[in-house]
């Protein structure tokens, strides 16, 4: 539970290298220290400080300011232009090339990224950024399937959501697969793929024909992980839920497949 609340360390690509004060890494260090204090005292209320938002039109380097999205324009297959409202005729007043850090909740996960606005520096009443939507790879072992389902359903319930999802479900046998009817329904959507990895099954011939094409026997190992990653349409963001041993194995296999930890979220 505490691990899920831990702030995510920024990747090198999130830093503009322009010597910003504070840098995105400064913000991370501050939030990490706050998380460590709260964890040591077992008091989650101490984390609320980072959730506070300013209502001022001017950006504050110490807090996040809430802005409304006024429009979203799709520019390419996976790139969108977002326009955010600024109160009145206010302006961000950023220096040339300076970035901002956007934080929001996407499919139940808090996401934080750095962006350089593409709108003119003197734009009044709004600012714009380009955001590229990626692909999700979900790795679930047993009951680790549970937190994946609300995310999947939120994607399939939104007709305008074009997120590609690959769900890999790990179970001992076919008989122990949870929620088969629901998973079958989800797999019918054009942007959802579901694979099964059955550690104690020895032959696909014993399975119903509808499962034979998308099921692997044995364990989810490094070679199979590379095969799944290579089958993704683009570099995925990975969600992992299972035992601690499962999470450790998946982290190692993902790294071998070229997926670094900053592109993973562990439930």
Question: What can you see in these coordinates?
Answer:
- By secondary structure, the chain is α/β, with parallel strands linked by helices.
- It folds into two domains: 68-132, Beta Barrel (Elongation Factor Tu (Ef-tu), domain 3), CATH 2.40.30; 135-266, Nucleotide-binding domain of ferredoxin-NADP reductase (FNR) module (Rossmann fold, 3-Layer(aba) Sandwich).
- 25% of the residues lie in helices and 27% in strands.
- It has seven helices and 13 strands.
- It has helices at residues 2-5, 24-41, 148-157, 180-187, 209-212, 222-231, 244-256, and strands spanning 53-54, 64-65, 69-74, 79-85, 100-106, 109-115, 126-132, 135-141, 165-171, 192-198, 215-217, 236-241, 264-266.
- It has a six-stranded parallel sheet with strand order 11-10-9-8-12-13, with helices on both faces. It has a three-stranded antiparallel sheet with strand order 3-4-7, with no helix packed on it. A two-stranded parallel sheet has the order 1-2.
- Helix 7 links the parallel strand 12 and strand 13 (264-266).
- The protein is globular, with a radius of gyration of 21 Å.
- The termini are close together.
- The model is unreliable at 50-57 (pLDDT under 50).
């Amino acid at each position: 539970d505490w691990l899920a609340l831990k702030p995510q360390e920024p990747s090198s690509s999130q830093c503009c290298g322009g010597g910003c004060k504070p840098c995105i890494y400064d913000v991370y260090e501050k939030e990490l220290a706050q998380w460590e204090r709260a964890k040591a005292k077992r008091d989650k209320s101490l984390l609320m400080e980072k959730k506070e938002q300013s209502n001022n039109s001017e950006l504050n380097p110490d807090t996040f300011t809430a802005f409304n999205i006024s429009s979203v324009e799709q520019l390419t297959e996976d790139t969108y232009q977002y326009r955010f409202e600024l109160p009145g005729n206010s302006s961000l007043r950023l220096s040339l090339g300076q970035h901002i850090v956007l934080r929001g909740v996407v499919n139940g996960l808090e996401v934080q990224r750095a962006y350089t606005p593409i709108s003119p520096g003197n734009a009044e009443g709004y600012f714009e950024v380009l955001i590229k939507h990626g692909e999700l790879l979900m790795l679930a072992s047993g009951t680790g399937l549970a937190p994946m389902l609300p995310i999947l359903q939120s994607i399939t319930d939104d007709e305008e959501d074009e997120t590609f999802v690959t769900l890999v479900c790990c179970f001992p046998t076919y008989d122990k697969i949870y929620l088969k009817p629901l998973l079958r329904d989800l797999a019918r959507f054009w942007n959802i793929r579901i694979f099964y990895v059955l550690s104690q099954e020895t032959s696909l011939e014993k399975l119903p024909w509808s499962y034979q094409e998308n099921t692997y026997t044995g364990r989810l190992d490094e070679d199979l992980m590379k095969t799944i990653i290579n089958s993704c349409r683009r570099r995925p963001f990975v969600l992992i839920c299972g035992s601690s041993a499962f999470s450790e194995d998946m982290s190692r296999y993902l790294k071998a497949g070229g997926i670094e930890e900053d592109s993973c979220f562990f439930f």
